[in-house]
Automatic annotation (TrEMBL):
An annotated GO cellular component: ATP-binding cassette (ABC) transporter complex
Keyword Ligase: no
InterPro entries on file: ABC-2_transport_permease, ABC2_TM, ABC2_TM_bact-type, ABC_2_transport
Record-annotated membrane-spanning stretches: 47-66, 78-98, 127-154, 166-188, 194-215, 252-274
Domain ABC transmembrane type-2: 41-277
Native species: Sphingomonas tagetis
Primary subcellular site in the record, as a coarse category: membrane
Protein name, per record: Transport permease protein
PROSITE patterns membership: ABC_TM2
Subcellular location(s) per record: Cell inner membrane; Membrane
Keywords per UniProt: Cell membrane, Membrane, Transmembrane, Transmembrane helix, Transport
Family from the record: Belongs to the ABC-2 integral membrane protein family.
Length: 282
């Protein structure tokens, strides 16, 4: 009986010759869906609990100051509740984007399942895109839930005046925290490290970014310090999308450009760290 040979189109590629020459869309989408399903399985904790927490903050602050409390933003007086509501929405988005991206690789390192991220035929860019895509998706799910809660509580004032600004700063702000989360998960070796970054870096930058106060009311020295806080530009731009006014010294387009530039730098840092395998492969 004659020996049969496999058809030429079914032969394996030579060693070192890539089989997937372009983007591995199948692997990328699979990892992205995995990241999304992971937080959706506990959506009561990852989506709805942050919405309730942000709504409670709004209720507490508006109740403490009363209905007459107002804040001057760009020379326009707005009720305090209307002022802080957009900031609370985007603050929930930022915190949850960081929480999601800082968990994946870190839990893999702790549980010894990091090989599940390293062995599949995914490039460094595809791995980073899937991790950050899942984090941004969670951020928008939380932001949507918080926005609906604020809309029911405050009414039509929570209807965006500039939807493009809301989407722009929501997207690139969440992406900024997703990159920071990936860096944290690469550097961290236990959950205490991620908690330390959350408590001593993310929380102070978020709370001191003008969420609960107008930067215009600060002294010139503290106003200058606030403008070195990248979170300030995200919250100020996101608030502009709802109120139509901003409390920043730079234009809204300049603020948007600053956020994108920071994302680009953080993205390059994440890519280089993942590619080097620092604290992941060694």
């Amino acid at each position: 009986m004659a020996e049969q040979h496999p058809a030429p189109d079914t032969q394996l590629a030579a060693p070192g010759v890539p089989v997937i020459r372009n983007i591995n869309w199948g692997g990328l989408s699979t990892l992205y869906v995995k990241e999304v399903r992971r937080f959706f399985k506990v959506q009561l904790q990852t989506i709805w609990a942050p919405a309730v927490s942000q709504l409670l903050l709004l209720v507490v602050f508006t109740t403490a100051l009363g209905a007459r409390g107002e804040v001057s933003v760009g020379g326009v007086n707005v009720p305090f509740g209307t002022f802080i509501a957009p900031g609370l929405v985007v603050m929930g988005m930022l915190n949850n984007a960081f929480a999601n991206s800082s968990f994946s690789l870190l839990v893999g390192k702790i549980q010894g399942t990091i090989v599940d991220y390293l062995m599949p035929p995914l490039s460094t860019g595809e791995l980073l895109a899937a991790l950050c895509g899942g984090a941004v998706t969670r951020a928008f799910c939380v932001g949507g839930a918080v926005w609906l809660a604020m809309l029911l509580f405050l009414g039509s004032v929570m209807v965006p005046q500039h939807l493009f600004a809301v989407l722009w700063f929501g997207l690139f702000g969440s992406l900024m925290l997703a990159f920071l989360g990936v860096i944290t998960s690469i550097w961290g070796e236990k959950f205490d490290h991620a908690a330390a970054v959350t408590n001593f870096v993310i929380a102070p930058l978020t709370l001191l970014s003008g969420t609960f106060y107008s930067v215009d009311r600060l002294s010139p020295a503290f106003q200058t310090i606030s403008h070195f806080n990248p979170f300030f530009y995200v919250i100020s731009g996101f608030r502009y999308g709802f109120l139509g006014v901003s409390d920043g010294y730079v234009s809204i387009w300049t603020a948007g450009g600053i956020v994108v530039a920071i994302d680009a730098v953080l993205g390059v840092v994440c890519y280089l760290l993942l590619r080097s395998g620092w604290k992941i492969k060694s």
